[in-house]
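[Automated response] Your request has been received and processed.

Submitted sequence:
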Amino acid sequence: MTSTSRGIDVSAYQPAQDWAAHKRSGLAFAFAKASEGQISRDPKFAAHVKGIKAAGLVAGAYHFAWPNQDAAKEAANYIATVKPYAGAGFLHWLDLEAYSDRRNYRGRTAEQIRAYAVAWIVAAQKAFPGQRVGIYTSADDIAHGHVPAGATLWYPAYPGSRVDTFAEAEAAARPTPSGRKPLIWQFTSTPASGPRVDSNLCYMSASALRTWAKGDAAEDDKPHAYTPPAFPEGLAPGKAKPSAVTLQRALKQGGFMAKSVPESPNYGPKTQAGVIAFHNAHPQYRAAGKSKDPAIGPKGWAALHRLAYDK
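Generated structure:
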């Protein structure tokens, strides 16, 4: 049986919380809305996050996305809001969901929405090196390709009164939208008892979540299944194929990987995320269906090398 832990998330819609009582009741984590769009900030964020941290819960914040606005400006809004409170063990989330009238998605294609998400995540990772950054998003967004491959998922799906307590969520099957396994399931906003808050189940024990939340700076030091392709001689600059370190340096030089990521001989998730960001930044690779591809081919490597060094 999968170990789990319990949590809630809040915004300006919730009053001040007794966070110490929440912890005594068995909660392990809590997230608060920090910002929305390019300039809006949640007026209760500071009070919420201070209480969460003071109670010793795993703390996090989220930004409500407007993919039809500028990703860099939205990330800057979030970063400035959260920076006084973020630190080791703090979790960051992009809330990627459409308003009911889709006004925040209007005029954007699936590829553009995904590119926005990649850009926002890269900016947040750069601002908070070693801290975890994930996406809160719906089954519809996942199915329509709005979510970058490999992103940590916080997933909302409400079964209704059939699952409106933590015990019922723990007994239910883990959701698998489009075959993906979310780390966190937000299963109700109307719990059977207690205050009206969003209730969440994390598929890690409280201790494992706390350890995981401490950061991923060493993630690329762990072996992973992905192996880069063998490149024919002459198609890649300098050598037949790039080593992981060579590729990481080019990704950093090109702005697709945070310079704070340690060099590693393994093609871990940060390296793969950098390759995905590179593919998403170039229309020819998106058109070729490579916008989710963590593997860089010989032509892609040559293009990345030119972009990074031939300036």
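Summary generated for your ticket: Strands lie at 5-10, 27-36, 40-41, 58-64, 91-96, 133-137, 152-156, 184-188, 198-202. The first strand starts at residue 5 and ends at 10.
If you did not submit this request, please reply to this message.
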